[in-house]
Amino acid sequence: MLDSVSSGGLGEAPRPLTEKDFRTNFMNRVGEVTRPRELRLAVYQTGADPALRKVLWKHLLGVYPEGKEFNSQLVNVTVLKLLLVCRSHW
């Protein structure tokens, strides 16, 4: 299964989800999360590597909607940031 989810000996905590595990096991070539339920379970059970968290949380919290390519997701984030700036100035 996943390297990060593999259980070691007694008392040994599993490794957190790494960027390599995330990209190879949960994303397709165009940047879509292919197994969102399993991704949430892996993060719940093992946590996430600190370097991955900035991107991962956007997937988990729905900032990057499921079923959209990565480039479309970046456009959504850019629009969201612009809307938040405009709203704060209003």
Topology, element by element:
Blueprint: H1 19-26, H2 36-46, H3 50-60, H4 70-89
Number of domains: 1
The helix content is: 55-70%
Radius of gyration: 16 Å
Number of helices: 4
Distance between the termini: 50 Å
List keywords for this structure.
90 residues; mainly alpha; 0% strand
Structural summary, described in words:
The protein has one domain. The chain is built from four helices and no strands. It has helices at residues 19-26, 36-46, 50-60, 70-89. The longest helix has 20 residues, at 70-89. The mean pLDDT is 78.
Please provide a brief summary of the model.
The protein has four helices and no strands.
